[in-house]
Amino acid sequence: xxxxxxxxxxxxxxxxxxxxxxxxxxxxxxxxxxxxxxxxxxxxxxxxxxxxxxxxxxxxxxxxxxxxxxxxxxxxxxxxxxxxxxxxxxxxxxxxxxxxxxxxxxxxxxxxxxxxxxxxxxxxxxxxxxxxxxxxxxxxxxxxxxxxxxxxxxxxxxxxxxxxxxxxxxxxxxxxxxxxxxxxxxxxxxxxxxxxxxxxxxxxxxxxxxxxxxxxxxxxxxxxxxxxxxxxxxxxxxxxxxxxxxxxxxxxxxxxxxxxxxxxxxxxxxxxxxxxxxxxxxxxxxxxxxxxxxxxxxxxxxxxxxxxxxxxxxxxxxxxxxxxxxxxxxxxxxxxxxxxxxxxxxxxxxxxxxxxxxxxxxxxxxxxxxxxxxxxxxxxxxxxxxxxxxxxxxxxxxxxxxxxxxxxxxxxxxxxxxxxxxxxxxxxxxxxxxxxxxxxxxxxxxxxxxxxxxxxxxxxxxxxxxxxxxxxxxxxxxxxxxxxxxxxxxxxxxxxxxxxxxxxxxxxxxxxxxxxxxxxxxxxx
Length: 525
Ligand code: G4P
Hints:
Protein name: Peptide chain release factor 3
Oligomer: single chain
Main location: cytoplasm
Largest sheet: 8 strands, antiparallel
Number of helices: 13
Strand content: 25-35%
Number of domains: 3
GO biological process, one term: regulation of translational termination
Structural class: alpha+beta
CATH topology of the largest domain: Rossmann fold
Bound molecules: guanosine-5',3'-tetraphosphate
Distance between the termini: 42 Å
Organism: Liquorilactobacillus ghanensis DSM 18630
Shape: globular
CATH superfamily of the largest domain: P-loop containing nucleotide triphosphate hydrolases
CATH class of the largest domain: Alpha Beta
Radius of gyration: 25 Å
Mean pLDDT: 87
GO cellular component, one term: cytosol
């Protein structure tokens, strides 16, 4: 691809994830966005998939059972001159390290909050990963058509719980049955609430921020109240600071109702004004790879296995960081130095998988993989070797003891575990005292996928015994004394041989710290 064309194409890309607690409305809003992009024709398509009505024969069985859609892992559409990639981050039951790692592949995030519930645990966890990356975060407070909490309360909670500055781009005029519309500070207009099938209707504001023309709304007390609240916000609240937004230190907040498609387009239009195009990525040696660079490079952030049980294939998801991907191109896999031909690639639309011929920095492509790739791998073209910074490891919270059901089949058991752990599917630990294998994950789904793949790919039936939630804390081997292990913690080593304690709860961790004040414990290796 020519340099100018590449620069133009890259500039069009907006790649983001929607983060939320289950039921806040992520699926509903995604669907509305896809409708704007003309990708799905009627509301309900994505939803139907989620509930499993959407027959897709080649889903991994376990996914089918849970109704997770593989094709909705990445959704691409064009809107207002931009090419938008939405990456899915599943909710709590489907939660896994993949969910976190997906956030390594986006340039910004949209946080959806239920106006009746405010900040919920899952939102908080996902937010923290975005915060760690310093990417811009936009907030959509959803379900205005229902009675929710007062908007000022929600904004205060956002700032206090997440420690981020908030800036209201618009403000609800009423809620639930009394919802009249939103007062749009950003566009200086009022957007009237209307039924889903009606067109948007906007009323202009004058320079004083009041309705320019006579309208029945003017005589309603809620209108007066909103004017007062907006005045208060402008006097005492934050000012919109684009530099802070870009650094992920301020979140622009939008109100709306995804279900009735109210305020979603307003959100999308404003979002696209602020959302960043693909940015540079750092290599391990601190060099910056620019998205417009000629040479292609990318990293693998997710591997999805066995989507088609007949073919035993898996798909490695690549975030393109620079240059242009062309089907059939030869790349170098940095970890092994091996050359690979990328002839079997796929891109994901809302309801189909299509073979992708060309893609540029910012896009995600799926590569059919026969076992070449691992999570965190870099692939590149050109003579200069590229190795992107390591993907962070996320401290597991759930643990199980794992054994082979059939003691005679130890070989396939060990082989399967070694490969799946290397691939990044789960974390592996071994007890100091008994030598037992313990698996760690951030979500239950990871264990289920592990069990399923052990059986299907390695013909090894495994028995997993839950040992529940634990707090994993690494200890400097020089400070370790095996006598520190007690009934309140479990001493294990990770796959690099580094020692860590799995504490029962906060109390047992504190108890340990009190007993050994000089010992340093860390949450991550
Ligand atoms: P999720 O992907 O974040 O888990 O949430 P999802 O979109 O599935 O929405 C969860 C529930 O909230 C759904 O109801 C959905 O219809 C509803 N919902 C989403 N946005 C809005 C909104 O703006 N207003 C109102 N009133 N409800 C909203 P459900 O009863 O669980 O599903 P369904 O039976 O309606 O399909």
